[in-house]
Design goal:
CATH architecture of the largest domain: Sandwich
Strand content: 35-45%
Helix content: under 10%
CATH topology of the largest domain: Immunoglobulin-like
Oligomer: single chain
CATH class of the largest domain: Mainly Beta
CATH superfamily of the largest domain: Immunoglobulins
Radius of gyration: 41 Å
Structural class: mainly beta
Number of helices: 2
Number of domains: 5
Largest sheet: 5 strands, antiparallel
Shape: elongated
Number of strands: 30
């Protein structure tokens, strides 16, 4: 369709807002002729087509665009104007088909008699056509396609013009294909989403959405939209709602009936809550003294207006390698998980509504023992029997399954060994049972702790000084 675009002095190429589509490029700058074919370029009789050309260079630069040249294809073939569903039914459905005759047909080159062969195919488009019927006059341009399933299927049509020469029907021209408008309804919580699907050679400008009124027992206008979809909101879950759509369209060339009015099939749907709540946002804090993890999360009722919330599900995995299992169902937005031997573990929370729709899991949040008292050893003790610091013992610790401690003297002789995490070495030689001399001793201690990775080992090494007063 013609535009009034005037290119600025410094502008090159064409802005996307004009609606022009790149259809081809020439091989060289010397190619200055191009033919846009109906079959290859999806051109349709009944429309005006406008073209502009610009050059582009090896460095990516573009020239200014040419002037705009427009053309209208001659009406030498039938042009479909209506594919309208009269009756919606699985067996007795009916589609009204109308087309305009080829007003510019060369009747000298293509003398009569004439006929139209009407073909149809299922779906919006395709080349698998089935012969429907024939009409035997150039003015006979209306046909009913009856006894078909218009409830579950949509159809597209093509009109083929033929003339009879020496008793044989010869093809002259064919129309562009055109489909009916096919509605798709997607129900959700208190609303139904309608999509309008079609493939036609004309432009559909607007759609009038009708909904069946159970009181008046008729379809009533609900809304007008220029979009290819409509969302009907404020509905009652469990109630049945039925719709049909009237499409208003036009050809851009003059001489065709305007507007082109075509009905979709009728479709019914029942809104139901299939929308899950939003995902909770989870926080986990370790309480090392009580061997507990404190879980808190945002209430989705206030966070994302999930007014039909039923409960939360808390899932737990003791390590990053184990599978998650359901820990608890709760109506609260917090939970304290008390464990036996560690605070290591991973969690996620799911929100569930009254229709059992579950949200996506929250982010997985893990707690480990790093924030707690880790196993460590002192560097001096005084085993002199005064009741103070007489034993070599670790500092207060958490989550140790076992250890393997080796203590050596300065000559590399092993003087003490234990797997007891509390150690309780009194400074005697494990071989002789006699007190070891005062001085510096060296240790290696492998500590086995419950972490997110499971039971893991950590190696400690250092020195111990024994002092007796």
């Amino acid at each position: 369709m013609h535009t009034s675009y005037v290119q600025g002095v410094c502008e090159t190429g064409l802005p996307d807002s004009l609606g022009f589509t790149l259809i081809d490029s020439t091989n060289t700058i010397l190619d200055t002729i191009y033919t846009d074919y109906i079959n290859e370029g999806n051109l349709a009789i009944g429309n005006e087509y406008c073209y502009r050309v610009y050059a582009y260079f090896s460095d990516g630069a573009e020239s200014k665009a040419s002037n705009e040249a427009c053309a209208i294809l001659s009406e030498v073939a039938p042009v479909i104007t209506h594919v309208s569903v009269n009756t919606t039914d699985e067996i007795n459905g009916e589609v009204l088909l109308k087309w305009s005759k080829p007003n510019e047909l060369d009747t000298i080159a293509n003398p009569g008699p004439y006929k139209y062969d009407v073909y149809f195919g299922e779906n919006l488009s395709g080349d698998n056509y089935t012969f429907l019927s024939s009409t035997f006059s150039l003015n006979d341009t209306v046909l009913l396609h009856q006894n078909i399933d218009t409830k579950n299927k949509n159809y597209h049509y093509q009109i083929r013009l033929l003339n009879q020469i020496n008793g044989t029907w010869q093809p002259i021209n064919s129309s562009s294909a055109a489909s009916s408008v096919f509605l798709v309804a997607t129900p959700s919580d208190k609303k139904i989403h309608l999509n309008f699907n079609y493939l036609v050679p004309w432009t559909n400008d607007s759609f009038y959405v009708y909904r069946f009124n159970d009181i008046s027992m008729s379809y009533e206008l609900l809304a007008k939209t220029n979009n290819l979809e409509y969302l009907d909101t404020g509905l009652i879950n469990g109630n049945n709602y039925c719709y049909k759509v009237l499409a208003y369209g036009h050809y851009s060339a003059p001489g065709f009936v305007t507007p082109l009015e075509n009905w979709s099939q009728e479709i019914c749907a029942m809104p139901i809550d299939i929308e899950p709540p939003c995902s909770p946002i989870l926080h986990v804090t370790a309480d090392c003294n009580s061997l507990s993890n404190i879980l808190t999360w945002q209430d989705v009722i206030t966070y994302c207006d999930a007014n039909d919330l039923s409960h939360y599900q808390v899932f737990y995995s003791p390590t990053i390698l184990d599978d998650f299992t359901l820990l608890v169902n709760t109506n609260d937005t917090s939970y304290i998980h008390t464990l036996a031997s560690t605070v290591a573990g991973c969690y996620y929370v799911v929100a569930v509504d009254t229709n059992n729709n579950a949200s996506q899991p929250s982010m997985k949040v893990c707690s480990d023992i790093n924030s707690c008292d880790l196993y460590s050893l002192p560097n001096v003790f005084t085993p002199d029997g005064d009741g103070y610091n007489d034993l070599f013992q670790p500092f207060p610790y958490d989550f140790v399954e076992k250890i393997h401690l080796l203590v050596y003297n300065r000559w590399g002789n092993l003087v003490f060994e234990t797997q007891d995490p509390d150690i309780n070495w009194d400074g005697t030689n494990m071989n002789s049972g006699r007190p070891v001399p005062d001085g510096v001793y060296y240790y290696l201690c492998e500590v086995y702790e419950w972490r997110l990775e499971g039971l893991t080992s950590r190696l400690l090494n250092g020195s111990i000084t024994i002092i007796r007063h």
